């Protein structure tokens, strides 16, 4: 990565040293970026900042506190950043969770879907995700079969449509969907158990490599036409994704639905 002095970065789900997000934010900080450490509570964010500063006393780190599944909290947290910053160079939406399929947000969307489907540089795995359908109403993603794969697929589709919107409006941004690989994180250990998680090939720092490439590699901006809206897999390779992930009409449908849900919740 190039020197990031003067840049501002925000990474969600970045408070735990055993997770991908912390390793992303740490490497961005080590390269000189001012970083916002995303977490669900102020205590967790401060714990992440403390861990950053223990390793690098010169780190400039601030908390970004929001329950990502709660759109009103996200809007409020973003407004606080806008009060302080006049720029945001890097946004990595890394936060994720695997909730029971029947568990929903207060506004009726699958909790897993709400947290995982929050792009701009968005981490998404496994490779070539597919699902029998994407939700056509806010509550449709409650099936145990569809919840997780649909949220992965949604990340890729959303990024493709988001890039189209950026380009149409002349916004100089490169948006990418990212698969960090099969990573043994603390969250994975909690979900599947230490024995199974330990068989995964990558450690958290390995898992941070591809998101870091997407977020800060000079060639991504230098070759914008190549990377804009792309799906990137370890380590820094562009992949086509599944047939559904290339469906432009489905991407537009998801975008329109997302706008409808957000507008309803924030009205």
Could you please describe the fold and organization of this structure?
- The chain is an alpha/beta fold.
- 45% of the residues lie in helices and 11% in strands.
- It has an 8-stranded mixed sheet, sandwiched between helices.
- α5 links the parallel β5 (121-123) and β6.
- α1 packs across α8 (204-216) and α5 (147-168) crosses α11 (248-266).
- The longest helix has 22 residues, at 147-168.
If strands are numbered along the chain, what order do they take across the biggest sheet? 3-2-1-4-5-6-7-8
Count of runs of 4 or more consecutive helical residues: 11
Please give the radius of gyration in angstroms.
17 Å
Number of strands: 8
Structural class determined from secondary elements: alpha/beta
The biggest sheet amounts to: 8 strands, mixed
Give the helix proportion (percent range). 40-55%
Run of helices and strands: EHEHEHEHEHEHHHHHEEH
Strand content: 5-15%
3D shape? globular
Kindly state the mean pLDDT as a whole number?
85
Which ranges are low-confidence, i.e. pLDDT below 50, for 5 or more consecutive residues?
Answer: 119-145
* End-to-end Cα distance: 41 Å
Question: In summary, what is this structure?
Answer:
The chain has helices at 20-30, 42-55, 71-84, 111-116, 147-168, 186-192, 194-197, 204-216, 218-222, 224-227, 248-266; strands spanning 8-11, 34-39, 61-65, 90-93, 121-123, 177-178, 231-233, 237-239.
Observed structural traits:
267 residues; alpha/beta; 8-stranded mixed sheet; 11 helices; 45% helix; globular
Set out the fold topology:
Elements: E1 8-11, H1 20-30, E2 34-39, H2 42-55, E3 61-65, H3 71-84, E4 90-93, H4 111-116, E5 121-123, H5 147-168, E6 177-178, H6 186-192, H7 194-197, H8 204-216, H9 218-222, H10 224-227, E7 231-233, E8 237-239, H11 248-266
Parallel strand pairs: 1-2, 1-4, 2-3, 4-5, 5-6, 6-7
Antiparallel strand pairs: 7-8
Helix pairs in contact: 1-8, 5-11
């Amino acid at each position: 990565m190039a020197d990031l002095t003067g840049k501002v970065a925000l990474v969600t789900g970045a408070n735990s040293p055993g997770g991908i997000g912390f390793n992303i934010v740490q490497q961005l900080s080590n390269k000189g970026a001012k970083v916002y450490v995303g977490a669900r509570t102020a205590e967790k964010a401060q714990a992440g900042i403390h861990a950053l500063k223990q390793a690098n006393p010169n780190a400039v780190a601030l908390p970004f506190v929001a329950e990502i599944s709660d759109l009103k909290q996200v809007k409020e947290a973003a407004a606080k950043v806008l009060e302080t910053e006049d720029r945001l160079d890097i946004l990595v939406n890394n936060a994720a969770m695997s909730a029971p399929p029947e568990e929903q947000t207060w506004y009726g969307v699958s909790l897993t879907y709400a947290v995982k489907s929050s792009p701009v540089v968005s981490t998404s795995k496994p490779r070539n995700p597919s699902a029998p359908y994407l939700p056509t109403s806010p509550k449709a993603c409650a099936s145990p079969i569809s919840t997780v794969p649909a949220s992965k697929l949604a990340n890729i589709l959303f990024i493709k449509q988001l890039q189209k919107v950026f380009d149409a409006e002349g916004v100089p941004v490169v948006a990418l969907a990212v698969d960090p690989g099969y990573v043994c994180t603390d969250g994975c250990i909690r979900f599947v158990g230490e024995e199974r998680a330990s068989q995964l090939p990558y450690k958290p720092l390995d898992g941070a490599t591809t998101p870091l490439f997407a977020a800060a590699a000079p060639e991504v901006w230098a070759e914008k036409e190549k990377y804009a809206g792309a799906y990137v897999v370890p380590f820094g390779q562009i992949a086509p994704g599944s047939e559904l992930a290339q469906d432009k009409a489905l991407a537009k449908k998801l975008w329109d639905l997302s706008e409808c849900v957000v507008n309803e919740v924030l009205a």
